[in-house]
Amino acid sequence: MAELATIARPYAEALFRVAKAGSLSAWSDLVSEMAQAAAHPDVKVFVQNPAWSDEQIASTFMAVLKTPLSAEAKNFVNALVKNGRLALLPEIAAQFLVLKNAQEGTANAEISSAFALSGVQLEEMVTALEKKFGRKLTPAVTVDEALIGGVRVVVGDEVFDTSVRAKLQQLHVALAA
Length: 177
Prior knowledge:
By secondary structure, the protein is an alpha+beta fold.
């Protein structure tokens, strides 16, 4: 998927420069909404249909969105459609979020736990993880019973795994060596 990331990067960076001049959070919400719409199977089929013109595809896509678009957002959608890149919106949104988080000094934390976490447990864990990773974290928590016990945290490309499953795998590797 490196190719998609490479193609999406200039679009995400250009959009981020425009967003910094305006409201970064409003643009973030809009980009997220556009990515969700572009990822919908019906939209994917529609934009790939050669029977529709670029203008028809762009206007229909903009009509699907709940948020009214500014002139810059309309230009962005038109540029994506003209260059056949509307399907890249989910990747563009992901890269935009990374740029936004870097600007704000935050990061997303994917926390997988063997058991459901209470609000207090999650708050304490996020506080400890923020100290460990040195930035403000936005947690997304999932329950994965396959971990057996403990947690697995992914922040960007860093992984912090204290699960029982990971420890058993380490023990298996040590015994097999």
